């Protein structure tokens, strides 16, 4: 790994690899919209990759980290993997892949030029295809944890909605999730100004995800730690 940021990212991904309820929760939200030819932008070490493989005929994975790509090559030798940045035009070499779904979980906030990333996603996606986004929410929640993993921003709903629509996508759904998570992130990143998230906390939180899922199905939170977007490229 190249630097401390890569190390912190790897530690976080390894911790969240143990949060099976959390990962499955994200997958289940996106599952109805997953098509046959899927592009996963920012695959990391594959915490969600194994779920996407269950739902599609072909999965292509991108990541900017050569280390993460090598990690996935060992675990999933059948995957088509690319060490590309979605905001770099080199990624447009994949335009002939007939991609009908692009999914990106906790990635867009790491990209300085997120509008360019959205523009490239639009170009790669087939007409009628879906863009599935999961990003950290609430700009006022931005703190030391965000800085340490090189988040450029956290998203407010109106701003994210505007960027996606400016990218020519049609938004089907955009909503907040994980209201409870706000308190943990605020405590660690704003009050205590920690640079690393205590590994035990995500694992404990994972135990409550099934209950949280049931609650948020009945009562949509007005705000939450994350924003989820289901968007479509017009035909």
Which shape, going by the Cα principal axes? globular
* Alpha-carbon Rg, integer: 17 Å
Average the pLDDT over all residues and give the rounded result. Answer: 93
CATH superfamily: Vaccinia Virus protein VP39
Overall number of structural domains: 1
**End-to-end distance:** 42 Å
Beta-strand content bin: 15-25%
Describe the structure.
The protein has 235 residues and is α/β, with parallel strands linked by helices. It has one domain: Rossmann fold (3-Layer(aba) Sandwich), CATH 3.40.50.150. Helices cover 41% and strands 20% of the residues. The protein is built from nine helices and seven strands; from the N terminus they run H-H-E-H-E-H-E-E-H-E-H-H-E-H-H-E. Strands 3-2-1-4-5-7-6 form a seven-stranded mixed β-sheet, with helices on both faces. Helix 2 runs parallel beside helix 9. The radius of gyration is 17 Å and the shape is globular. The N and C termini lie far apart (42 Å).
SSE topology:
Blueprint: H1 4-16, H2 20-30, E1 37-41, H3 49-55, E2 58-62, H4 66-75, E3 80-82, E4 99-105, H5 114-124, E5 125-136, H6 144-148, H7 157-166, E6 170-177, H8 181-191, H9 200-218, E7 226-232
Parallel strand pairs: 1-2, 1-4, 2-3, 4-5
Antiparallel strand pairs: 5-7, 6-7
Helix pairs in contact: 2-9
Comma- or semicolon-separated keywords:
seven-stranded mixed sheet, Rossmann fold, alpha/beta, 7 strands, 235 residues
Summarize this structure briefly.
This protein is α/β, with parallel strands linked by helices and 235 residues long.
């Amino acid at each position: 790994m190249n630097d401390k940021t890569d190390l912190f990212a790897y530690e976080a991904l390894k911790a969240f690899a143990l949060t099976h309820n959390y990962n499955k929760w994200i997958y289940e939200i996106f599952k109805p919209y997953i098509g046959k030819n899927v592009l996963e932008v920012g695959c990391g070490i594959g915490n969600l990759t194994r779920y996407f493989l269950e739902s599609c005929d072909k999965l292509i994975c991108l990541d900017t980290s050569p280390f993460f790509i090598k990690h996935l090559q060992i675990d999933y030798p059948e995957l088509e993997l690319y060490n590309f940045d979605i905001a770099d035009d080199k990624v447009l070499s994949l335009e002939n892949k007939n991609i009908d779904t692009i999914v990106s979980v906790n990635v867009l906030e790491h990209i300085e030029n997120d509008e360019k990333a959205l523009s490239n996603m639009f170009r790669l996606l087939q007409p009628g295809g879906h863009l599935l986004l999961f990003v950290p929410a609430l700009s006022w929640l931005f703190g030391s944890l965000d800085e340490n993993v090189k988040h450029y921003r956290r998203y407010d709903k109106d701003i994210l909605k505007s960027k996606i629509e400016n990218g020519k996508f049609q938004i089907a759904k955009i909503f907040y999730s994980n209201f409870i998570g706000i308190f943990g992130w605020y405590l660690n990143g704003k009050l205590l100004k920690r640079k690393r998230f205590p590994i035990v906390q995500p694992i404990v939180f994972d135990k409550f995800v099934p209950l949280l899922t049931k609650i948020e199905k009945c009562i949509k939170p007005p705000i939450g730690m994350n924003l989820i977007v289901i968007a479509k490229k017009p035909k």
